[in-house]
Specification:
Elements (H helix, E strand, L loop, with lengths): L1 H17 L2 H13 L1
Helix pairs in contact: 1-2
Length: 34
């Protein structure tokens, strides 16, 4: 469980840092998988 939360956190951080449409899409895709 902790690892999944960590992965989601990293994805959110990457999407936030990029702030681009592609970054947001990737984050949503990761969230959908988990």
């Amino acid at each position: 469980m902790k690892r999944k939360l960590f992965v989601v956190g990293v994805g959110a951080a990457i999407g936030y840092l990029l702030g681009s449409h592609a970054g947001r899409e990737r984050y949503d895709a990761m969230k959908a998988r988990i």
